[in-house]
């Protein structure tokens, strides 16, 4: 390197010219994207607002960060590297139910947890969707015959998509979420399900043996969930 | 055993006679457990007996309290061990009559008995005198009946109130109005509780005055499920779901070890090596998640460390999937061996495992750069969540939690099973007693596990082709003898994982009790966090590395 040459000094007139040239030559591409070409001469899209909203809903789903049991491990893997649910517009877990659109129920629901899950579901804003992950949310799975296990999430909250498996692989969950997006985009509503277990005020319950027994322990105004195990599937 | 029948006198060994001399005036009868001598005592002498065993004979580890109901009586069994030598065991059997099942509590002698006895009360229905807080622990307060009792009707309706879930903002002062403390529910749906744990926390400003873990939100009756299954095949799928953080093979081994010793099954050496290798792969995967979520708890790092940990877990899971056919719920062990041999082509499999193991030191270096040498993490973890050695022992803490408190205790080495005693590895122990030590122990354990796996691969590679015996000859239906009782433990990812089985001559166990390490470890949380700041409590909870499937079973 010659010593006369000044370091760190460029010919700025040259730089400006190059930049301007580059901009001017690329101008057409900058404002005429491939998408624009696909639309033809008009920059407008004509669609129904409902349809547009459904497309938006399906394409930007905020999931509830909700871990219950074994399936939540596979759910974490679905969110994380390799499977990366984010690629499918559905990978932002929100810690608060008030910011979430979709609840993945990943695991066994037991008697003590069902009222709380119902409460979390109630706290989510409409429109909300539920993906039941794993056999436990379908029927109680391997624990179905237990004394403490709810025979499926659908006994408590409505479920849009069931993903079977114990636990389902991350690919299966991704497929389930994709199917949910498809349904949302098509504007299909969740099926109407009969939920046997609801929260009720204790005072409103019909008086029977078990209510009498618990009358001293539970306030009239307390919310309770009553399990009729004998009627469960 | 039974009070009416004359039980066999166990073989008299030198240690036993000393124990008999020590407890001479307290022993009513003796019994014969497969793993240890058992002494029957009266229900009002529990504290006296356990006190003498703890203080004079050195049995300082109350591993498990098993409760069960017989047609004519209730029984609580205290399984005692020594931290110095876990093979030195003794069981204290406390029968109580079925009309009025009241027994003295062991809580003043061993703090860990607190939760264990609450569970016994909850599920079986034995009441403990002198217990500080005898409430239900796993089932809701309003539950009717005791489900592990003999005459429990499972079809009865039950009612669960939602009141404990009261909005803390509406009703934030638990005691009288002039109190400065505030009551906050953390969980059961909260990202920092690692599942469905509910912490009832009382705060004074930013300091924790009292924290009480409320568990049972994932109590899915694992013990009942095991009692409904036959020994040979129907029980094995369930252990995978106790500690579901990829620690499946470690859990399966707990059941396999107890059942094999119960039925006198000898496992072929080749199968033991495969088991050892698989179990250590599981341990690496489990510890990776522990480290990742710990970093997530400490500084909310969802981007780098958590993802790195998941990446390394994926590698371990891929190998386990090749080996067992499943990513998470392996169901790979069988009584007497494993279900199938290593996948073909074997060279390819060995190559995969070797690559994984060889990458571990580099990966750990990266983790150390990111985590342990990170100043923020050090500030948050060094000197917080202090669990002194004596306290840890009193609570029956095991695994990395105990080893982080300077207790040199590892079942793999001290009560060897599998192929561990033939291999060259070390037990990492740190004596900092804080959150940082527990993290360090986990990371050093990953290194040791990698060493074990490497040695197993060497052995498997050179194993003669005609001696690859993966399965012992096991009868189609196992019916261990009536009244045979056994309690066996293994070193799970979280600590000492044990299984107690009582056979009744049929093909199903009469009582199946799981000793969960997390259950005991979680009890230490108030000890570590009372008087500290809330963030330190969250860090302490993260460093315990609990998994609710195992706490609640």
Overall description:
The complex is a heterodimer of chains A (233) and B (553). Chain A has 8 helices and 7 strands. Chain A is of the alpha/beta class and 233 residues long. Among the domains of chain A are: 62-185, 3-Layer(aba) Sandwich (Rossmann fold), CATH 3.40.50.12280; 199-231, no CATH class. Chain A has a 3-stranded parallel beta sheet with strand order 3-4-5. In chain A, strand 1, helix 4 and strand 2 (92-94) form a beta-alpha-beta unit. The longest helix of chain A has 20 residues, at 12-31. The radius of gyration of chain A is 27 Å and the shape is elongated. The N and C termini of chain A lie far apart (86 Å). Residues 1-14 of chain B have low confidence and may be disordered. The longest helix of chain B is centred in the middle third of the chain and has 31 residues, at 269-299. Chain B contains 17 helices and 16 strands. Chain B has helices at 14-22, 46-55, 113-123, 222-227, 248-262, 269-299, 305-324, 346-372, 375-381, 389-394, 399-403, 411-414, 435-461, 517-522, 525-529, 534-544, 548-552, and strands at 27-32, 37-41, 61-69, 73-81, 90-97, 102-104, 127-129, 158-161, 181-186, 198-204, 207-214, 333-334, 337-338, 485-491, 496-503, 509-515. With 553 residues, chain B is α+β, with helices and mostly antiparallel strands. Strand 7 (223-227) of chain A pairs antiparallel with strand 8 (158-161) of chain B, so a sheet runs across the interface.
Apparent shape of chain B:
globular
Q: CATH homologous superfamily name of the largest domain in chain B?
A: Cytochrome-c3 Hydrogenase, chain B
Helix count, DSSP H or I runs of 4 or more residues of chain A: 8
The largest beta-sheet of chain B arranges its strands as: 1-2-5-4-3
